[in-house]
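The protein record quoted for completeness.
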Amino acid sequence: MHKGLTPWLPRVAACSTLPTAAEPVASAPSYTQALQDWRQPEELSAWAGQRFRYDPARALQFSAMQRSVSTPPTIAEPAAFFDAPVGVCLDLSRFAVETLRRVGPQLQARYLMIEFEPVTLNGHVLRLHWIASFRRDGQIYFLADSERPGHIAGPYATAQAFIDDYAVYRGRPVVRFLELDSLQRQPRTLAAVR
């Protein structure tokens, strides 16, 4: 979840990608217009790659330590996020899932919650990361990653195959992951544990 950690984490490019257009994304003047114009995940991903900016201070507000002493901030509504695309993985993944569900329900957009082995930064324990997924032709693709917002990883046969590659890419062991339909907190007993 914390982009500021990445400069000192080793990275290996281990994910395949869908081809992306080299030309700039047509700029929709509003979220309402984007919902009318966009039909494919590639359009949303290209928009995110050009516009999303990571907010490290906001990431610390979602840390385990901060959650234990106060209520975490709200996750941006998609329309508000479109107008001000600055945030963290939760904001970007919510934008992607909710937008894809509206423009392409056949894509079966979902959340992927990844729990890494925890790291501590300035007294804040960081472990969770959220991205979005969609299905096409029986395969799974992953996007809306705050680490690489304009990237689509896939195709993968399973989320586990993606997680194996992603742990290498991030240089951090994954403790568990969950494929979810909602951002609502899930009981730990339902976890897909590696």
Notes: The two ends are 20 Å apart (CA to CA). The chain has seven helices and eight strands. The helical segments are 31-37, 41-51, 56-61, 64-69, 78-83, 89-103, 159-170.
